[in-house]
Amino acid sequence: MADVIDDVQAIPQHYDELMCATSTSFSPRTQQWIDTMFESSMQETPSAFFEISDIALDGSRIEEIIDDSMMSGLDSSAYHPDAGSFHFPSCSPNTLINTSVGCGPGSGITAADNTVPSDAVMLLKHYQTAVLQLLTPFRHSKTPWHVLFIPHAKNCLAALTLGESIDCASLCLFYGILAISAFSMAGLSQSSIWLDQARRYKQQAREFGKSMLKSAYNIPKRAKYKSILMALLTLVQVSMVTGNRDQTECYFLEAEKFIRLRGLNRKKSRKVRLLHHCYAFERILHESTFVESINSSHRLHVREAVETSGLAIFQDNMSFRLGTWSDLDQDMKRVKGQEEGENDLHLEYPGVWSATLYPEIFGVPETWLFLISLVIRLAREKDTAQQAGASDDLSAKDFLGRAKAIERCIKQMRQPRSIDHCADPAVENMLDAMRNALSIYFYRKIYDLDPSLLQQRVERVRDCLLKCNPTDSSAVYGSARLLWPVLIAASEATNPEVQASFALWLKGAAERSGLRLFGGYIEQPRADLEREGHVF
């Protein structure tokens, strides 16, 4: 791997030395080693673009259902016997990693069981200094990724290096982050060596994730709640950046089940709420472009596990069905209590929650994400009504009344002036693109408006992209947050020049990041986007 490091001089010299405490406890010598392990400097990353179009990871789409004794510690009176089973996409037979070593106290994995990757420090630096810029529009180091994910990965590396015990959840997160960083390096350097390494790290993360889920619900617990949830969110991130929507769906559902069974009925620290917000933001956007069956076996499994647990009474609807509000304009002014605000995972209920963290993490008001959730829910009521024999659908009058109420809220939505960081022109520009994309999404999903009538809004999204200087290295900040409005608007663009503008932005984002997250959409025709679930 030393040759790879020499060939790919890929790490910016600047390094943010912020180290925040995590929930993982290690010996004093481990903590001391963590403070000194990242002092070496690296050279800057070349900007060559590598289209990873030949990635074909985990070709089989058959779900692997594991129903063994992973939930043996659960109270049988509180949980359905099948609630502990989990679904995991099958593994590529050519890249299986041996993770037969048990996880948790008394059987933790040590350096003797797992070789410390020689490129780990470099990849963690690249992830922190380059990849994380994609996820947030902010330039500070107080995001969930900086204060939770990165410190946890560093602690894991330190423990492996010093031969200390570590659980499978931490190893899953660790190898997942290495995989994302290596995929980025592969794209930036056009290196097949990095691509192969990224695939290996991804497979290791998946195997440790599988082992983690086998004991995730055990009592006593073998890994902390935050560690397991961070690992699941990392697997979501890995599958998203590699363009594997089947795996993304799988990990989202496992994360949802874990949150609902282990996270919503507990006192939530700020760190836990940060993780819940990270999950919900990405999940709602995923749901907005989801075109497969909402009654898949995996979704039904998660729904049954939660409903039979007795915990669903305090939560939002798991099927993204419309709530019972009648006067949305008034309900939007209602102040939510702490329990409702924290447990309304997918934003079903209207109202104002002052403790929301979406503006702090993603730079967007909760209202924007809530309205996307409402559009998803109303669209599903519409789909249900169109099915033969549907008996619980809204009447046409009720449907139109709710559609008009949502439309008014979309038109009235304004940038929250109480949030200081909204003065940032880049954040304001991002919000403008998101608001226009939300309008496009609403009119296409609910009214099925002809795309020709939406071109003004499509062009507004394009104009927001043009305000970003493509040659400016800072343009990468928050690029992943612009992907949803870009795909929504690009899929409805009818003008070839506007279409070319969107393709150019995607190409530029791919060149700067090296990730298939952007490159996979370049110049794809509308039919391909529609077939793959990115338009309506």
Automatic annotation (TrEMBL):
<protein>
    <recommendedName>
        <fullName>Arginine metabolism regulation protein II</fullName>
    </recommendedName>
</protein>
<dbReference type="Pfam" id="PF11951">
    <property type="entry name" value="Fungal_trans_2"/>
</dbReference>
<dbReference type="GO" id="GO:0005634">
    <property type="term" value="C:nucleus"/>
</dbReference>
<dbReference type="InterPro" id="IPR021858">
    <property type="entry name" value="Fun_TF"/>
</dbReference>
<keyword id="KW-0539">Nucleus</keyword>
